[in-house]
């Protein structure tokens, strides 16, 4: 059965390209796993798949099993100090390309067929939340996704709960969509079209995230507004959708997904105190790569606290049967 084992589906949408849907999807997925949930990411941005690069697994390959394609594992389920961390797996066309630089030049019908195959032929197993990273706009991919999900899933919490208790079937719940924008009016105007898309397709809206809202200092965490701010909150108020919050640019997260190495230690004076007095700290030339799992390194990012809040808000709303719109 398609999507067998998947309990909840959350779409990440935006009418504008370049607003950071993929990074929002990944951070929300990591935050959900740290809440003990097993999470899958389905990347249907067919012409620009970003998830393989963001999770640092560009060379990974999809394997075939009797139940369908097996997603790539980013990290497995684990328990540490009594706290459970859920698994994270992902599926993307990027894993199926022979070379990561290959261009995907497809017409609408082939894109539609690929999305249908992703929704019917991937074996997710037991998955609490499946996050779907979408391309910008409201084109063929979105129409195919909406049609297929509204056929394979339910937006009714009571129906999903009833199905979950049945041993013969396990109907997933289309919990809703998270809408991503940046503060600028050119972005919020396009996201309004995505709100209209959700209304017309009867997809619930879980909330709006304002991405790139200022800049987080990598040293102290102070946020500075480089451009405008508040556009996402105004959009949420005018459309009646919950405002989940603003996400400043986080240099630490950028370095994380770019696979930067870290310095082993700072140079110290003879008293064992790092150099001060207005002088630059000299860093040890020995550099080491942080080999901890992605989810553990993410907890060092300034933005983690914000996404932890987003995850708790969504869990509270979805698991208590509420909907955004």
From TrEMBL:
GO terms for molecular function: 4 iron, 4 sulfur cluster binding; ATP binding; ATP-dependent FeS chaperone activity; metal ion binding. SUPFAM superfamilies: P-loop containing nucleoside triphosphate hydrolases. One of its GO terms (biological process) is iron-sulfur cluster assembly. It is found in: Cytoplasm. The keyword Transcription regulation does not apply. Residues 262-284 are annotated as: Disordered. [4Fe-4S] cluster binds at residues 217, 220. GO terms for cellular component: cytosol. Pfam families: ParA. Keywords: 4Fe-4S, ATP-binding, Cytoplasm, Iron, Iron-sulfur, Metal-binding, Nucleotide-binding. ATP binds at residues 15-22. InterPro entries: Mrp/NBP35_ATP-bd, NUBP2/Cfd1_eukaryotes, P-loop_NTPase, YlxH/NBP35. Belongs to the Mrp/NBP35 ATP-binding proteins family. NUBP2/CFD1 subfamily. Component of the cytosolic iron-sulfur (Fe/S) protein assembly (CIA) machinery. Required for maturation of extramitochondrial Fe-S proteins. The NBP35-CFD1 heterotetramer forms a Fe-S scaffold complex, mediating the de novo assembly of an Fe-S cluster and its transfer to target apoproteins. This is Cytosolic Fe-S cluster assembly factor cfd1. It comes from Aspergillus coremiiformis.
């Amino acid at each position: 059965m398609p999507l067998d084992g998947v309990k909840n589906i959350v779409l990440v949408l935006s009418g504008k390209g370049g607003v950071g849907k993929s990074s929002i999807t990944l951070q929300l997925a990591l935050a959900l796993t740290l809440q003990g949930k097993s999470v899958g990411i389905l990347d249907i941005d067919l012409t620009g798949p970003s998830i393989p690069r963001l999770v640092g697994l560009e060379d990974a390959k999809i394997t075939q099993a009797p139940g369908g394609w097996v997603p790539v594992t980013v990290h497995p389920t684990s328990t540490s100090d009594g706290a459970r961390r859920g698994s994270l797996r992902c599926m993307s066309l990027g894993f199926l390309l022979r070379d990561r630089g290959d261009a995907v030049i497809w017409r609408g019908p082939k894109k539609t067929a690929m999305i249908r195959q992703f929704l019917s032929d991937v074996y997710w197993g037991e998955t609490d939340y499946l996050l779907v990273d979408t391309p910008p706009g409201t084109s063929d991919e979105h129409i195919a996704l909406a049609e297929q999900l509204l056929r394979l899933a339910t937006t009714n919490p009571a129906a999903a709960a009833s199905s979950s208790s049945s041993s013969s079937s396990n109907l997933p719940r289309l919990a809703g969509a998270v809408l991503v924008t940046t503060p600028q009016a050119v972005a919020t105007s396009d996201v309004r079209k995505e709100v209209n898309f959700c209304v017309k397709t009867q997809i619930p809206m879980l909330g709006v995230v304002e991405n790139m809202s200022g800049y987080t200092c990598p040293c102290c965490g102070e946020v500075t507004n480089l451009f405008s701010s508040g556009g996402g909150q105004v959009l949420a108020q005018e459309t009646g959708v919950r405002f989940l919050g603003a996400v400043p640019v986080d240099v630490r997260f950028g370095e994380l997904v770019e696979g930067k190495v870290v310095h082993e230690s700072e140079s110290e004076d003879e008293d064992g105190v790092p150099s001060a007095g207005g002088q630059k700290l000299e860093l040890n030339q020995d550099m080491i790569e942080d080999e901890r799992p992605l989810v553990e390194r993410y907890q060092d990012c300034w933005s983690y606290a914000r996404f932890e809040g987003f995850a708790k808000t969504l869990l509270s709303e979805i698991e208590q049967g509420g909907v955004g719109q």
